[in-house]
Design brief:
This protein is mainly beta and about 220 residues long. It is built from three helices and 19 strands.
Amino acid sequence: MKQIARMVRENSGFLLLLVLMSLFRSVVADWNTVPTGSMKPTILEGDRILVDKLAYDLRLPFTHLSLVELGEPKRGEIVIFDSQKAGKRLVKRVVGLPGDVVAMRANRLYLNGEWLDYRAAVAGAGHVDLREELDGAGHALRWQGEVSALSNFGPLTVPPDHFLVLGDNRDRSADSRVYGFVPRREIVGRSDTVVVSLDYDNYYLPRGGRLWQSLD
C-alpha cells in the first residue's frame, strides 16, 4: 500500500490530467469513429467526427442522466446516439421531430403534408448522389438506384420525446426504418465536423481533403 501511495503522489499531476481528460470527453466533447458507409456521401468510412456533447444536454459524467437540457435536436442535424435496440452507438441524420408525420415512397420523403425537394443529381458507379432540401437547407444524399424494403414506409407520427433518423446512404443504412424511433435520452451529441479521416483502402493513411471538414 505504501508503494501505491508513493506512486500516486509521484504521478499526481499525470493522474489528474487523465481524470480531467476523461471528464472532458464524457461531458463536453469527444470524437467518434465511423466504420460503415451508412452516411455516405456526407461521412466516409474511417472518418473521425467531432461530437459536441453539450449540444443538447449537460449530463452527469459517464452516464446518460441529463442534469440540464440545453437544446433540442433539429431536422437536418447529424446526431450520435447509443441505440439500445441496435446495441451500439450510431450516427444518423434527424428527419422527424416529435409530432411530425413522415412517410417515404420510392426513397422520396413526405413530411407534414409536403414532398421534399431533390436536386442536382450526379450519377456514380451504381448510385446517384443528390441534394435533399430539409427545412430550407440542403444536404448530400445517396440512392443506389434500387427499390428495396427500406424505400417505403408510413405515414408515421413521431411520438413525444422521440426522433425519426435516417442515414444519408438511404439504401445502405439501418436506421429508424429498422430500429424504430430514437428516444431523446439516447442522443449523446451532435456532429458537424470531420476531425480526421483514415483511408481504409490506402493503408489507413489520412485523407488530406477531409481534415477539419464541415459536414452538411
